[in-house]
Amino acid sequence: MDAYTRAGVVLLVFGGPFAAFSYWVLNDVTFTSIGLASLILGATALLVPSRAVPGESVRALVEAAAVNVEALLEEFDVTGRGVYLPPRDGRVYCFVPIGGGFLEAGLAGFDRVPLRVVTKVGGVDGLCVFPPGGEVVRLAGLGEESGVEDALVYVLVDYLEAVESVRAVETGDRVVVELSRPRVDTGFDRFRMCLGSVPVSVAGCVLAWVLGEPVLFMGEAMDGGRVTASFRVVTVGQE
């Protein structure tokens, strides 16, 4: 239950018996009014939505936003894995090398990535795109001081309602994220190859936001209703 629902239940449970006891036993108008007011407030709290935009609408907007990214990746025939960059101007961006061999070329220069569509990092040509998950993280009001797993749960489970549960395991510079029963899927092959499926891409944005470092998408695998994605945290200036 969200905060409004819990408050509504408490007020209803308190207000009903209190109003009845005050009226029939104490015969006190003031206390009876307090009980009735609690009932009204409780019913109002139950009717208030937990947020202005339902999760289904947010997920639909995320899927629609992924169309433009997919078209851009297809236009440039991009085949590299994306690197999610820590927030700049309150938004997470993603650098996607156009060709392969990116890891061999080095991972330096991410603190100086020009925010333009066609750009270059460490001598590697690529695209700088704004993934849909970047806006989700910003709108969710996620604090940069949040823990990794708590942040993933808050954004993917509570806010976006894109998966049933999330688990994150950090080992050195690697982060493995397990997503249970994803509810969002664009079906865009290029987007999935370069940025990961939509829930995985959102997870990459969350990691870059919380860790404050570039995060390289290493790949994902699906086993039944569970998706396992691997990321590498890149220290700025690392070769």
Structural key phrases:
239 residues; alpha+beta; eight-stranded antiparallel sheet; 8 helices; 46% helix
What does this structure look like?
- The protein is α+β, with helices and mostly antiparallel strands and 239 residues long.
- The chain folds into two domains: 3-47; 55-233, no CATH class.
- The chain contains eight helices and eight strands.
- An eight-stranded antiparallel β-sheet has the order 3-4-2-1-7-8-6-5.
- α5 (132-140) crosses α8 (198-211) and α6 (148-159) crosses α8 (198-211).
- The mean pLDDT is 81.
Largest sheet: 8 strands, antiparallel
Question: What is the global morphology?
Answer: elongated
Mean pLDDT: 81
- The number of helical runs is 8
**Element order: H for helix, E for strand:** HHHEEHEEHHEEHHEE
- Taking all Cα atoms into account, the compactness measure Rg is 23 Å
Please tally the β strands and state the result: 8
How far is the first residue's CA from the last residue's CA?
A: 47 Å
Helix fraction? 40-55%
Question: Given the helix and strand composition, which structural class is it?
Answer: alpha+beta
Biggest sheet strand order reads 3-4-2-1-7-8-6-5
Number of domain modules: 2
